[in-house]
UniProtKB/TrEMBL annotation:
Its EC number is 2.7.7.65. Residues 176-306 form the GGDEF domain. It comes from the Bacteria. Its main location: membrane. This is diguanylate cyclase. One of its GO terms (biological process) is cell adhesion involved in single-species biofilm formation. SUPFAM superfamilies: Nucleotide cyclase. It holds the Pfam family GGDEF. It comes from Halopseudomonas pachastrellae. PROSITE patterns: GGDEF (PS50887). The lineage of its organism: Bacteria, Pseudomonadati, Pseudomonadota, Gammaproteobacteria, Pseudomonadales. It catalyses: 2 GTP = 3',3'-c-di-GMP + 2 diphosphate.
Length: 306
């Protein structure tokens, strides 16, 4: 997985060193015994905390022991299943766990059956994956909690800043349109005042689920603060953004949210803006914010664009 941003890729540097060492060792004395493979793989797997990278290294290292055509890894924390190589007819699967903690499902496949002795070695080799995999999952969880709003699960302001800067750079380089919409819940204070803060929190969670359900998985949903959210739409021009914002508005209006069995209608006002050549993140957000306030002044529960 390529690293983004201006960082030094220590992982690949260390990998290259490790690979170089391995190549040198292979030239002098072939690495053949199970213990040698296991030791080498153990060292290699410690060079990264990136889940994809750890699994890639395991798949590559495994080939010294048995030839496998494909490997698939599933864990809800990892998002979509991660596939390496290509899937073949014969498969073996493992549910990985450690000290009661679930570490995912791993499946290997190839064209010919796995022999019993191969499976036994594979199971022994899986031990090398345990701690690197657990550490990579913990690292991923730590990153996610640093970038997500704890109440609603939407991205937080830090995630918005990072992704917006990146998407603006990309849109300017590729010439693709980029739009965003700011959404502010109408009269949210009344919900808190009437039902209490805890119910207000539940209403915000329901709203985020509702907005997320009307987006593509490449779209970003972020909480700016309070009851204000941003939807970031890559490769989307002003007309398409208006349609998306209108769809969001309607889905919030139709949301069947109940408090103690009582329906609680919610609406939101939305303002959108599309990237111009002289925009930066602040000017783009400010323009959408101005439109959102126009929507509030215009009577709320409406969408205003540029
Ligand atoms: N329950 C809950 N309420 C929050 C949270 N963050 C902000 N609020 C409340 O959201 C309300 C926002 O109120 P206002 O800014 O007056 O806006 P509004 O009532 O939505 O009215 P308009 O935006 O003008 O339609 C305040 O009562 C905040 O306390 C939160 O995390 N949970």
């Amino acid at each position: 997985m390529p690293l983004q941003g201006n960082t030094i890729d220590f992982d690949s540097a260390r990998m290259k060193l490790a690979q170089g060492d391995a190549a040198r060792r292979r030239r002098s004395k072939p690495v053949t015994s199970f213990e040698a493979i296991q030791r080498h793989l153990s060292l290699t797997l410690q060079t990264s905390l990136e889940l994809d990278r750890v699994l890639e290294m395991f798949f590559a290292g495994l080939q010294a022991l048995l030839q496998a055509d494909g490997m698939e890894y599933r864990h809800s924390a990892a998002g979509a299943p991660l596939s390496l190589g290509h899937r073949a007819l014969h498969r073996c699967s493992y549910r990985l766990s450690h000290a009661g903690g679930y570490l995912g499902e791993l499946q290997l496949s190839r064209q010919t059956r796995f022999a019993e002795n191969e499976l036994a070695s594979l199971e022994a080799l899986l031990g090398t994956l345990l701690f690197p995999l657990r550490n990579a999952l913990m690292y991923r969880e730590a990153l996610a909690s640093a970038l997500n709003d704890t109440l609603t699960g939407a991205g937080n302001r830090l995630a918005l800043n990072q992704n917006l800067e990146r998407d603006i750079r990309l849109a300017k380089r590729t010439g693709q349109p980029l739009s965003l919409t700011i959404l502010d819940v109408d009269h949210f204070k009344q919900i808190n005042d009437r039902f209490g803060h805890a119910y207000g929190d539940e209403a915000l969670k329901a709203l985020v689920n509702c907005v997320a359900a009307s987006l593509r998985n490449v779209d970003g949903l972020y909480r700016l603060g309070g009851e204000e959210f941003v939807v970031l739409l890559i490769n989307t021009d002003a007309n398409a953004c208006h349609l998306v914002a209108e769809r969001i508005r309607q889905s919030i209006e139709q949301l069947q949210f109940h408090i103690d069995g009582q329906p609680l209608p919610m609406t939101a006002s939305l303002g959108h803006a599309t990237l111009r050549a002289d925009d930066d993140a602040t000017s783009l957000l400010n323009r959408a914010d101005l439109r959102m306030y126009e929507a509030k002044r215009g009577g709320r529960n409406r969408v205003m664009g540029q």
